[in-house]
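Example 9 (inverse folding). The structure is encoded as follows.
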């Protein structure tokens, strides 16, 4: 498993699975404009010459915001999300980033477990933040906010 930064020619490889996994949060068509901004970056997992996972994040000054980790639905449960998160943390340490922040749906139990395992701590809760994943309900779901201190002052 090789992790590297995204290249424009990775777009077609992502297109095979991205919108099945991430379309609600980050539609594939939004990535080129997003990644054209200097503070946004994405690391990808290359598996058998295809992109099988991606980690989208932004860095401003000494703070990083993890925006999204996605793995090809056909290749989940192989540790790719953990490797992407570990790579992000390692890179942040090298860049003297002080904190990584993120938010996650309260029902995303796998992601929450991943973040706790990596050393993130829950710092807050935003009630009724996300629209429901159920099409027939107007209910909203809370967002949990997390922080990982990388290079303390």
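The amino acid assigned to each position is listed next.
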């Amino acid at each position: 498993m090789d992790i590297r930064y995204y290249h424009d020619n990775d777009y077609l490889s992502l297109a095979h699975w991205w919108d099945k996994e991430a379309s609600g949060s980050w539609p594939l068509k939004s990535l080129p404009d997003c990644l054209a901004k200097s503070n946004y970056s994405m690391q990808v997992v290359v598996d058998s010459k295809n992109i099988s996972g991606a980690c989208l994040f932004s860095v401003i000054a000494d703070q990083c915001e993890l925006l999204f980790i996605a793995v090809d639905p056909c290749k989940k449960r192989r540790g790719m999300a953990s490797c992407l998160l570990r790579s992000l943390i390692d890179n942040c340490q090298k860049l003297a980033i002080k904190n990584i922040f993120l938010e996650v749906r309260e029902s995303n139990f796998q992601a929450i477990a991943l973040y706790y395992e990596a050393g993130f701590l829950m710092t807050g809760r935003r009630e009724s933040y996300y629209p429901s994943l159920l099409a027939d309900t107007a209910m909203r779901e809370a967002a949990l906010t997390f922080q990982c201190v990388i290079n303390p002052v």
